[in-house]
C-alpha cells in the first residue's frame, strides 16, 4: 500500500515540481522598459484593449484578445529570462499571479453561483413584479428603483442589478422616454455607488480586501460617501422627472420553493468568508467554497424532494422531459447548472487582465508610473485621477495596476482609491458594464448622449463623495 502511494506521488512531483521561491539575494527582476520585450508587451496590451473596447462592434468576446495578450507578454518575458539564465524568476512571478487570480476566481464563482440561483428561484423577478403592480408615480419609481439598485448591488453583480431595475422602468415607463433615460442614469450611478462600500460589491473592492489593504468592516466607512455619490445627483434629477402616474400593471410572480432559504444561505456564506479571513486568518475564498457546499447540500434536498420527480429514477430521459414540460415552474434545482451559467467571459477576461498588468509590472512599467503618480503628483490627486480614468478604462485593470504598484499610502488613501475607482465609472455611460448593458437593453431610450447631458451633476456627486470621505474619515489619513 505504501509503495502504491509513493510511486504516483513521485510521478506528480516530477510533473509538477514544488515552487521554492528564490531568496532575495539570489536574483533581481530586470528592467525591460526600454527593451524590445517591453515595447512588444505594451503593444500587445494596447491592441488587446482596443478589441475589448470594440467588443460591441466586432462581437468578439473581450476575454479572447486579453488572454492572448497575456500569453504573448509572458512568453516574451520567458525568452529574455531564459537568455539570462534566470528562468525561475519569471516562473515564480507568474505563479504568484496565477495564485492571486485563483483565489479571486473561487470567490467569484461562489458569489455569482448564489446570484444565479436567486435569479432562477425568481427572487429578482418577484421584486420586479411587486414594483410594477404598485401603481406608483414616476418620481416614486425613480427613487425606489435607485435605492434598491444601491443596496442590491452591494452584494450582487452590478450589471444584473441594473438590468433588473431597468426592466421595471421599461415596463411602467415605456411611453415616457424622458423618465426611462433619467431612471437609467440614476440606476447606473446607484449600482456603482452601492458597489463601493462593501467588499462583495465589485471585483475592485474584492481585490483590495483580498490583498489586505482594508479590513472587511473597514470598507463600511465609505457608506455615507457612497450615499452622497448617489443621492446628490438623484436629488437634482428628481425635478426633471414627470409628476404623472403611469397606468397600473397587474403582474404577480411568486418565488420558487427554497428561494428564501437560499437568501439565508448566501448571508451565511458571506459570514463564513468573513470568519475565515478575520478570525482564522485563512483566505476568504476558502470560506466562500465552504459556503458553496451549503447550497450544494440544499440543492440536493430540493432535488430529492422535487414535486415533479418521476417515481422510478432510472426512467428514460424522454419521460423526464415530459414531466418537466408538464410542470414548467417546478424544474429540478441543479447547482452545477448554476455553475455552468457563470459569466465565464468576464472571469477569463479578468485572468487576462491580471497576467497582462502583472507582466507590465514585472517589466518595470508600473514602478515608473507609481513614482510619477504617488511621488510627483501625490496620493490624493493620483487617486482622484484613478476615478476619472475609470470612466474611460475598465476599473478592473486600473485597480489591479494600483495594487501591483503597492504605493506606501495610508488606509484613508486606499479607501479613497477604492471609492473613486468604483464610482468614477458613472461619469460616462461607457464607464461601467452596467451603463453599456442598459444602452443595449433600452433600445435607444438611454444613450451615451442622454447620460453625458447629466455628467456635470454626476461629477458633483463624485466630488461630494470625496469631500465627505475626507471629512468623515480624516483620522484614517
TrEMBL record:
Membrane topology: Multi-pass membrane protein
Origin superkingdom: Bacteria
UniProt GO BP: sodium ion transport
Annotated transmembrane regions: 34-54, 66-84, 96-115, 136-155, 216-241, 262-282, 348-366, 373-393, 413-440, 452-472
Example of a GO cellular component annotation carried by this entry: membrane
Compartment annotation: Membrane
Pfam families, per the entry: CitMHS
InterPro entries to which the protein is assigned, alphabetical: Cit_transptr-like_dom, NhaD-like
Range of residues in the leader sequence: 1-22
Citrate transporter-like domain location: 50-422
UniProt keyword list: Antiport, Ion transport, Membrane, Signal, Sodium, Sodium transport, Transmembrane, Transmembrane helix, Transport
One GO MF term attached to the UniProt entry: antiporter activity
Similarity comment text for this entry: Belongs to the NhaD Na(+)/H(+) (TC 2.A.62) antiporter family.
Protein name: Transporter
Organism: Methylocaldum marinum
Amino acid at each position: 500500500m505504501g509503495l502504491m502511494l509513493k510511486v504516483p506521488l513521485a510521478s506528480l512531483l516530477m510533473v509538477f515540481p514544488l515552487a521554492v521561491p528564490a531568496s532575495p539575494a539570489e536574483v533581481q527582476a530586470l528592467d525591460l522598459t526600454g527593451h524590445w520585450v517591453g515595447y512588444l508587451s505594451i503593444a500587445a496590451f494596447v491592441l488587446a484593449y482596443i478589441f475589448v473596447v470594440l467588443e460591441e462592434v466586432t462581437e468578439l468576446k473581450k476575454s479572447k484578445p486579453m488572454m492572448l495578450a497575456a500569453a504573448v507578454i509572458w512568453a516574451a518575458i520567458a525568452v529574455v529570462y531564459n537568455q539570462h539564465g534566470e528562468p525561475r524568476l519569471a516562473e515564480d512571478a507568474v505563479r504568484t499571479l496565477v495564485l492571486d487570480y485563483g483565489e479571486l476566481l473561487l470567490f467569484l464563482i461562489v458569489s455569482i453561483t448564489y446570484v444565479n440561483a436567486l435569479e432562477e428561484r425568481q427572487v429578482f423577478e418577484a421584486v420586479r413584479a411587486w414594483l410594477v403592480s404598485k401603481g406608483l408615480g414616476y418620481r416614486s419609481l425613480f427613487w425606489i428603483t435607485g435605492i434598491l439598485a444601491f443596496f442590491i448591488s452591494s452584494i450582487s453583480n452590478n450589471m444584473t442589478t441594473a438590468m433588473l431595475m431597468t426592466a421595471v422602468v421599461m415596463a411602467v415607463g415605456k411611453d415616457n422616454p424622458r423618465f426611462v433615460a433619467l431612471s437609467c442614469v440614476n440606476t447606473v450611478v446607484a449600482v456603482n455607488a452601492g458597489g463601493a462600500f462593501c467588499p462583495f460589491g465589485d471585483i475592485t473592492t474584492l481585490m483590495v480586501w483580498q490583498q489586505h489593504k482594508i479590513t472587511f468592516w473597514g470598507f463600511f466607512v465609505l457608506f455615507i460617501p457612497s450615499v452622497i455619490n448617489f443621492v446628490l445627483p438623484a436629488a437634482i434629477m428628481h425635478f426633471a422627472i414627470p409628476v404623472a402616474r403611469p397606468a397600473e400593471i397587474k403582474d404577480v410572480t411568486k418565488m420558487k420553493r427554497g428561494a428564501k432559504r437560499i437568501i439565508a444561505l448566501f448571508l451565511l456564506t458571506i459570514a463564513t468568508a468573513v470568519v475565515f479571513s478575520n478570525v482564522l486568518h485563512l483566505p476568504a475564498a476558502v470560506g466562500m467554497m465552504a459556503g458553496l457546499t451549503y447550497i450544494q447540500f440544499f440543492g440536493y434536498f430540493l432535488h430529492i424532494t422535487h414535486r415533479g420527480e418521476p417515481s422510478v429514477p432510472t426512467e428514460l430521459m424522454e419521460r423526464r422531459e415530459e414531466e418537466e414540460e408538464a410542470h414548467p415552474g417546478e424544474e429540478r434545482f441543479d447547482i452545477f447548472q448554476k455553475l455552468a451559467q457563470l459569466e465565464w467571459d468576464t472571469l477569463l477576461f479578468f485572468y487576462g487582465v491580471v497576467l497582462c498588468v502583472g507582466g507590465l509590472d514585472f517589466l518595470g512599467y508600473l514602478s515608473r508610473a507609481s513614482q510619477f503618480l504617488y511621488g510627483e503628483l501625490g496620493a490624493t490627486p493620483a487617486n482622484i485621477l484613478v476615478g476619472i480614468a475609470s470612466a474611460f478604462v475598465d476599473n478592473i485593470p486600473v485597480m489591479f495596476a494600483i495594487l501591483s504598484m503597492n504605493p506606501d499610502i495610508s488606509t484613508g488613501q486606499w479607501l479613497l482609491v477604492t471609492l473613486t475607482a468604483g464610482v468614477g465609472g458613472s461619469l460616462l455611460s461607457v464607464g461601467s458594464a452596467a451603463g453599456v448593458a442598459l444602452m443595449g437593453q433600452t433600445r435607444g431610450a438611454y444613450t451615451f448622449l442622454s447620460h453625458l447631458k447629466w455628467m456635470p451633476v454626476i461629477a458633483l456627486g463624485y466630488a461630494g463623495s470625496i469631500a465627505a470621505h475626507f471629512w468623515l474619515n480624516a483620522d484614517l489619513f
